[in-house]
Amino acid sequence: METFFIIAGIVLFTTMWAEIYRVMAGPTAIDRIVAVNVIGTKTTVLLVFIGTIFGRVDMFVDFALAYGLLNFVGSLAASRYFHRCLPYTTPIDAPEKRKKTSGGNRTEIS
Amino acid sequence: MTIAINILSILLIVTGLFLFLGASVGLVRLPDFYTRMHAAGMGDTLSALLVVLGFAVYQLHGFHDIRHDWPVLLVILKLLAICVFIMVTSPASTHALMDAGYEEGCEPLTKEGGNALKEDLARTRGEDTHDSEEDSLS
Amino acid sequence: MGMRILGFIAVFVTGALLTYGVADFPKWGDPHSPANAGEVSTYFIQNTKADTHVPNIVTAVLADYRGYDTMFETVVIFIAGVAIMAILRVLATIPPGHQPVQYDPRKKIAYDPIISVTCRLIVPVIQLFALYVVAHGHHSPGGGFQGGVILGASFILIAITSNLRSALRRFSEKRFIFIACAGALIYSGFGLTTLLFGRNFLDYGVLSKIMFDTDEVMARSHSMLGVEIGVMLTVTAIMFAIYANLSSRGALRGGL
Q1: pTM for this structure?
Q2: Domain around B58
């Protein structure tokens, strides 16, 4: 059974090279972010593999959970980078109008 | 019982690895951003779920009696927590990244070769496109 | 293009050398490896359980045997946060001819409904997990720094998914500066209390006199938890302070 885990882990690690290719060759920046996100998910799974192979799953599960969590925060932050911010000052003489920012779904709700 | 647990976990892990492979191939081979995003988002969630579930099944080997083996039960619960966590967060981050790509103006590949994104963006953003100067403060 | 290829070659060669170096590592858990065979390591491995009742040797070394070191690591993080605030924080940033936008405080500006609902589901779980990492540091990997980073990430997640304004309403500037100071003060307070009882700085065993129903060994274990909580408070507050200052260019208004 342990041999199976080792082989499966190696297969999982090998498939990561596809994402590495996309990180290097991706035409846009967001392509690279997506690929890094996929690598993060695979690392989460790979940590569980390593824990099982070492026989200390109780330890490595915590690592995996924390890694997945920070991966989620990181990908959200990277996606947020492409949205514009809310202004906090306006010119005084400008007529009052509804601020419509670039996102279609970013509106003021109560 | 042992063999049944082994077979079940091997089945789940192999299925998950196969889907991981599919996600990777899709990420490399598909032509434009949206299809690549589709492959990455869909394949990633289900396959990570299946592999972690396979490990949760494999942990049942050490579980015979709840009085002595409760740490094993804790590990199984944590693995299931990872499953739930991936199931909730991965689609959300896929959605956020897709939204960011749409904002950035990644063009979808269309059969006619026209720029479908431009019309779509103009329709979503509405008529008032005069906000470019004020909102540029970041 | 030539520089990129050169850079790739440099990175590849470095990686290959490092991978080659892995072959010389001692085996996993080898008791005769140089790191484990020294006098100090042998003492820790043999006596940690008897001295402190903490199963995780790393936590015992970090918070007890080398507590002085960890205290100043916390202070370093605190100073980093204070320095970033001192450099970036600006008070009046309204350019001439402009006025601040008055947002209705009862309304909130949603970044995206799907993501804010997901965030609302996930943030309590993250905070609970962070507290678990801190409190369970005696038995599993974890401790104040890790738990603080996760807790700070949960506040940053709020700021990312809704906006900085609603995150600052939960964790305002006054509050995070206070908490950062309180964390560093808790740590050094433990040390000063031991001084008052006539022992060395950060020699926790003597605290059994003021803790109920503990002997010297358990007092060391409990004090480690208290110290870890202090570290967690500082790291959480400084993480969020750095994010808030960087994302709004020190104005703490508007922002992402």
Answers
A1: 0.83
A2: 2-126
